[in-house]
What we know:
Elements (H helix, E strand, L loop, with lengths): L3 E4 L5 E4 L2 E6 L2 E6 L7 H21 L6 H8 L3 H9 L5 H9 L9 H6 L5 H9 L2
Antiparallel strand pairs: 1-2, 3-4
Amino acid sequence: MKTKTEMLENGNLKVTVPIDLRVRNGGKTLAVDGEAPEDTGRKAFLLAVARGRAWQRLVDEGRVRDIHALAKAIGRDHSYVSRIMRLATLAPAVIERVIASQELPPGLNASRARKSVPLLWKEQLREFLGE
């Protein structure tokens, strides 16, 4: 069934939109007319990785003194900044998989990856990609 619009006798418009509630990457999305919206979880994850790498570069190059100074400069809490910066240590294979696929691997999302990231890439592959 497609989206349908009809004029009612009282002059109002009645719009019927078929939707499906889908569970995806631990969250729920609405699919309208059978098409799911863009994968915002994947985009949020890649954006968080990019931010983490950029912020880590600022610290590494000495452009900011430490995480506390960076957090103050960008108007964020230092704990948030440090969690995002952990994503800079993700294995290239994990990031490549996210870029190449249309969805995040099961169990991997920005909030999950911010909690704790194993230091060894081999452990990251096992935990996030099941390899």
